[in-house]
Amino acid sequence: MHDFFRPGRAPLIAGNAAIATSHPLATAAGLDILGAGGNAVDAAIAAVAVQCVADPLMTGIGGDCFVLYQPAGGEVVGLNGSGRAPAAATVERLLSLGVNEIGQTSPHSVTVPGAIAAWSKLHRDYGRLPLSRLFERAIDYSETGYPVAARVACDWAGEVDLLARTAGATATFLPGGRAPKQGERHHQPLLGQRLREIGRDGAAAFYTGKTAQSLVAYLNGLGGLHTLEDFAEAQDGADYATPVSASYRGYEVVECAPNGQGIIALMILKILEGFDIAALSPVDRIHLHAEATKLAYHHRDAYLADPAFCPEPMSMLSDEIIDILRARIRLDRASTPVLWSEPEHKDTIYLCVVDRDGNAISFINSIFDGFGSGHVDPTTGVLLHSRGSSFRIIKGHPNAIAPRKRPLHTIIPGLLRKDGQVAMPFGVMGGHYQAAGHAQFLSNMLDLGLDIQQAMDAPRSFAHGGVLEVEPTIPEADLAELVRRGHVLKPRQLPLGGSQAIWIDRANRTLIAGSDQRKDGCALGM
Length: 526
Hints:
By secondary structure, the chain is an alpha+beta fold. 35% of the residues lie in helices and 19% in strands.
């Protein structure tokens, strides 16, 4: 039972449908669609469109998305809405241009955005209400303004230098020359126009015609290799892919297939499954999770890439490999990871919906860095993401840039199933943390017996880049013990990630939803 004397949220309980997002306006928009007869897909698209407006540093129509969707009585569908490199992009071409590494603000960091193609395909195949209806609230907030939420304002203030670099970003996101403060209203009328066009004409309004022409011209002006043909091909670029899964504590954990890192979440869980997690002390659990994460992420950075260019590394989930990795873990001593040069990324939104018919969707949309590449086309108002910065300019590397190739992706929606039925759509935001976050969240629930909200709110840590990032809610005595074991601690200045989930209680015919207190969002139901 929830302790009402302690700070924190209680889980939401609903009888017919529920939605959980990281922004209250998005949650309300999705609930409105559910009340109007829309299904889970409709509600998710309506909610993500609002987040593209009201949480612009985290997501946008110039980004990518991944989806796991299980129709009631059907099989899980995985949708890959990640964009591809331009056809002219090769390691040799970039090296000839003097590019040895793709930075956040480089035009080469902008793969052709895949989100709108994915939204359109998902809506065409599974939606119920017109796309124009789904965008109504997002368009209204774009044109009449929306109040800037607390966490959004906090993060926005940290990106002023990036936004001040270009005229389009300054005009759009620094009104009056500064970041909006909490409670102030912000407008994006050009984004509203794009959403209105997409609602009327579908994905073609983004990938062809004046919008595509303007985006290509803008990127070419920065030295990008993009063409109108690259954008036109991307209109049908989202594709369905069979998800990957593994068992954990009697449940099936389902993740999107590579090029996303969902398989790494499964790898961490398989390593953890060999330990009696519930019997360990809190500091042992932090240490064990860190060690499993380091092992799995090393394999991620060495082998994970677009499966169209490299074989899917399913052997990483074999019992033989997992046993070998698990045996390397010492509970009394931290290992020294092999480091790759991977910058921190955190800018993603995640949402989930279960509707009255039992359809469940797990949906994630991202621009990778805070405000993506920092580039806003001043003609269209489209903020462009920076996912291409994950490519390597190294010949022979699995994640080397290549024509029409997708980069390694950090964003991963999740589904938990029991006996072939959805038990919980869930997801954790936070860039590279997401795979580790999936494992940590599920272990909190399935090993420690925490409820959905407690599992989200529990203190977090993340072993990455040679350090162990720790939230200040971890006790000082545990931090001291982690240092004694050899961990190099890095205190978090901001909360680590965010999460949403909806548990389907079939025995009581109710839905139990949670939304991470680290963000502005909430869960609502009906």
